[in-house]
Amino acid sequence: MTTNHDPISVSLANGTSILSTPIGTLPLPGLPAQATEAFTFNNIDYPLLSIGQLCDADCIATFCKHDMDVSHSDKTILTGHRDASTNRLWQIDLPPAVAPLSHWANAALHPTKIKELIAFSHASLGSPIPSTLEAALAATNELQVLPDLTLESFRKHTPNSVATAKAHLNLHACSPCDDQAGLDCLSYG
Hints:
2 domains; about 25% strand
């Protein structure tokens, strides 16, 4: 919710007016931002939907005796029905809000030196070999969830990780084992 907004006034059936509170956003992907802007009101139990606002964004609203739908670019984005329990007002089924996908590395540590932070970030990513992480950082230049981890900072402070060294042991052909004849065996060396 946004706290800075110009409130709008809505006149109620009893002659009083109410002002909107912070602005929210409707979970309607593919629409312009102004079409998904939602005003909330403290004294209204059920949210109101502005059909005009959706139509201004090139949506088409179709109302029939029992059902309604709103479409945009030939795709249905909202459906609804008339509800006898609410004096036959339209009940709209809003899609669930989908949070943006994000990954977080949580820890009870707070490295203070950039070298420690880079080592921690490297370990959080599974201690990949430097060339793998450099390629990922070159593609995005920064992994947003790991502060200060950039291609430049990683190259400057590349950690000497024991985990990386142990995870990338050489696979050598060994003499055939008794019950695994002909298979390669791990060799530490």
